[in-house]
Design goal:
The chain is an alpha+beta fold. Helices cover about 20% and strands about 20% of the residues.
Length: about 140
Amino acid sequence: MFMRQFLVVALLFLFINNSFSQTYHNEWIDYGKTYYKFKVGSFGTDAVNGNAILKKGMVRIPYSTIAAAGMGGTPSEHFQLWRDGDEIPVYISKSSGSLGSSDFIEFWGEVNNGRLDAEMYRDPSLQLSDYWSLQTD
């Protein structure tokens, strides 16, 4: 009788535990790989809209930056770019093999926003702005 009650309580606990699970938006991470973060700086200002800060633009990572991070010998076909759990297309100046001193990686970059931060609020409508992220830039 005790074992049956224990089993019912254990199954109930597992059901309740799984029903309150949440996503952390890191499901795309392969923990067997190494990831690097590059600070790319601001994209500049938009003269048309009263010098407003641009939230997106083309970003080029030169070979010197890649080599300084210790990835100079990495074959170009192994580079990937991820944003918010989605892979972003990149242009690499060399289609295969190790990059040379004149090579680069280029992609369309956007400033991090706070759209994913809404999940931290009990009521998402209380989020003041999704323009800036509370966690990172």
